Each structure stands twice: as structure tokens, then as C-alpha cells.
Amino acid sequence: MSIRTDEATGAAPPAGTSDIHDPASDRVGRIETHGIEAVPESDRHGRPSSLFWVWMSANVAYLYFVVGGVLMLLGLPLWEALAITVVGNLWWALVGWLAVSGPAAGSPSVTIMRAMFGVRGNTVFGAGLGVLIGLFYEVINVAFATLAALALLGAFGIGLPPGGEWAVLLVVGALSFVIGVYGHATILALAPWFSAALAVVFAVLAVFVFDTADWAYAVEPLPVADHWALVMLGFAIVASSPLSWGTGADYARYLPANVSKRKVAGYTALGGFLPAVLIGALGAVAGTAIDMTDPQLTIGEIVPAWFTPVFLAMIVLSSIANNVLVAYSTGFYAQALGARVSRAATTVVTGVVATAAAGWVLFLTPSFLDVLGASLELSVTVFGPLVSIYAIDIVLRRNRYDGRALADTSPASPFWYRGGVFPAGAIAMVVATAVAVMSANTTLWVGPISQALGGADLSAVVGPVLAAALYAGLWLTIDPYRDPAKRPAATSDPHAVIIETTDAAASARTQEEPA
């Protein structure tokens, strides 16, 4: 039996897809109607350059200022903190590479990952982890924005009644998710304005920071092993931000299928890399002049009084802008868990959960910054393997994805594999994550591999490299792709996915779980 999904066949698309042209599906000011299904060619539009502003607006963010300060709190010299900021953010090149799968499939990243983990496996490794990652960063953004909003009210002498901080949290939460509910077109329209406003504030801040920086700043020398352990820990913290963005396809999927891959990858990577490096470096330089444990409070030591409210307002706006992209993609991930509701609805639900969690972290835990630091240190052990498997799959398939085939979740799907799980993806993810955890050296956990290496934290390197190598090796040696004739890259049609099976195998698979 030959199962072929190809736009040229004229066959009806699988359940969950739509070939109906809907000109209102992606318009500014209207709630986007497309979800995790493939976007029809008739609805494709736009230019790769728009991706630069999308990623720029999301990453002109206060979080990078904090991360730059954290590098200084670790006790690193300024020049090393700056170098780590640049090198750690080189992972943005990988984020750009992931984005090229969007125009190819016309689908969001969580749908494309069914090719790597299988229909059922993706529920755990794609959608499940995606929801957790999304909620993690939504909580961070809501918490930052709430703290800044409370400080801003205090700067204007506005007192709050008992419990008033919870009301501020709710307002911030609502503002953080409303744009994500509207979706793609509205995000693209607002992105340049967010980018410009935030960039101006950071540019003014840079003037004050560089004017007061201690360029002769020195730290106490450490033993070589301890020093390199701090360097690798700092690298892991910086790398955790770009490695968390395995969602590049979400914002590129409306582009025509024949768009330049180089431009899609370049504009995506540059939009994230530039603000992450510049703002992170600014945070590191600020760390030579003030205590970066809580820069919202200490920034007043190096800026005029009139600028403090501007700085706090910037934190609120940048956190909301970052949450726009995070909330949008988290809605897709939640939808892919099997929820039979719209992306807009899942965005609202996950937003409510994140806001509640942010309240718990802010008002009911001892130290928000301690929780944040520990979380960032360990998060890279999961983020790294996940995005590297995605990246190497694009290479192996030569970026040939069929969005309609990926939307088919029945046992007849070419991505059903073995019981709905692709062993290559599942094994690579579990093994690489386990090794990364054992290679980590954080404030909460020191793995045995790190201990054997004198405390060096190699999780941000070992996890991604091992995951990619293991996945590629398994992909080439297990069914179905150990047969070169069955590999998607072997087909002549870039929009086709062909999987050959025997009639008996197809029948057995259908009996295992009816469609």
C-alpha cells in the first residue's frame, strides 16, 4: 500500500486542515482563525523582513538586562561577561534555522514536530514540553511587569489598599495576553512600534550606564577550575533564552512556500540576536556601577529621577511585548495537546494559569530572583536537546514538510510510526536531556559528570550536540527511513511526503487504534 499526501492529487485533506480561502483569517484587529492546521497557499502573504520586527519587539526585553547583571553577580570580569553574552546568543542562528520550516509546511512548530516524535510522542515531547516552556516564560514576564508596575505606582505616590497588588497583577496579566489572542497579523502590525519605543528607552539608558560605569572594575581571582565552572554556568544562563524559542515556524508559516530560506533564517536570527546582545551587554556594564540583584530598585543610583518612571514603564512594556510571542505559541502547544478549542481560547486559558502562577511566585515565595536564576540554570538541559532535534530533522528532510500530512493524527498518518511514537526522537530526547542534567552545575543541582570535570557545566553544549547526533544516527538506521527510498528527501516533489507500507502493516496499525 502506498500512502501519498500531495497537493497535486486533489485528495481531501486530513481532519483538522482546511483548504478554504479565508481572507479575514489573518487581518489586523481581528482574531486569527487559523490554528495548528496548515495555512492554505491562498492565504499566504508577507515578506521575510517582517520577521525581523517580530523578533526585535519580543527581545528588546528587560530580561536580558537582568541576565547581563547576573553574569556580574557570578563574579566574572566585565570582558568575560560581554564575551559570554555574545557567544551564548549565537544560538539565535539555530532559532533562525528552525523558522525555515514554517513556509515549507505552512504549519506552526508544534505541528511540524510530529515528524520528529510521532503523533502521540509529540503530545509529550512537543506539545507537552512546549506548554511548560511557554508557561515558564509567561510567568517570568508577568512577574517582571507586575513588579515594575507596582514600583511605578509608588514612584507617582499612588498607594494601594491591602490586596491591591493582586489587582495590579490581574491588569498586567490581561494586557500581557490580549494581543496574543488576536494573533499573527496584529502582532506583525504592532511589532515595529513596540521595537521603536523600547529601543529609544534602552538607548537613553545606555547613555547613563556608560557615563557611570566603572571601567576599571575588577574581581577577586579564583582557582582555574572554579573560574571555568562560572564561565560555563554563565554561558548556560545566556543560552537558555535563545534555546527556548523553538517556535520560529509559528511566525513564518504565512509566508509563501517558495520564499528565500536564507532571508527567513537571517531576519529571524538577527531580530533576536541584536537586542539580546546589546541589552545583555548593557546589563553587564551596569553591574560595574550598581548592585544588579534588584535593578528595578538600584537603577535610581545611576539615572536622573525623571528617568526612573520611564525605566519602570519600559519594563512593563517590554515584558508585555515578549509575552505576545510567548502567549501566541503557547496557545498552539495547548491546542496540540488535543484540546478541541480554538487557539485564541487556549491562549486565554494558559494566560490565566500563568497569571495565577506569577502571583504565587511573586507574593508567596521567598525570593523571585532566586527562583528565576535556578530555573534558567536548569532549563537549558531541556531546551537544548529539543531545538537541536528539530534543527537536524530539517537537515535530514531537506526542509520538505507537508502541512496537510502533518495535520493527520489518525493511525494512517505517515507520522504514526510505531504506535504513534517515532523512536528516534523519543530516545534522543530522553538520553540527551539525562546527560545534560548530569552535566549541569547549578545552585540547586550538581550532576555527576560536572563533578568529575571539576565543576564545569557543559549542559548547554553536551545536550544539543548529543541530541542532534543521536537523532541523526537513529533516523538513518531505524524504520521507516533506514530505507533511502522512503526518506522524504528522496521524493522529487518538495511538497510531498511518501511512506510505503505493506497492506498488512497498515491494517494492523488501523486495528491497534481506530481513526
What are the salient characteristics of this protein?
515 residues, mainly alpha, 22 helices, 2 strands, 64% helix, disordered C terminus
Give a structural overview.
- By secondary structure, this protein is mainly alpha-helical.
- The protein is 64% helix and 2% strand.
- The chain contains 22 helices and 2 strands.
- It has helices at residues 49-59, 62-73, 78-88, 92-99, 101-105, 109-112, 114-117, 121-155, 164-182, 184-212, 224-243, 248-252, 261-286, 295-298, 307-336, 343-363, 368-397, 403-407, 423-438, 448-452, 459-477, 503-512; strands at residues 2-5, 497-500.
- It has a two-stranded antiparallel sheet with strand order 1-2.
- It is globular, with a radius of gyration of 23 Å.
- Mean pLDDT is 84; it is low at 1-22 and 491-515.
Q: Strand portion, in percent?
A: under 5%
Q: Structural class of the secondary elements?
A: mainly alpha
Total DSSP E strands: 2
Taking all Cα atoms into account, the compactness measure Rg is: 23 Å
Quaternary form: single chain
Distance between the termini: 18 Å
Task: Give the biggest sheet.
Answer: 2 strands, antiparallel
Mean pLDDT over the full residue set: 84
Estimate the helix proportion, in percent. 55-70%
Which shape, going by the Cα principal axes? Answer: globular
- The neighbouring-strand order within the major sheet is 1-2
Elements, N to C (H/E): EHHHHHHHHHHHHHHHHHHHHHEH
- Uncertain segments of ≥5 residues (pLDDT<50)? 1-22, 491-515
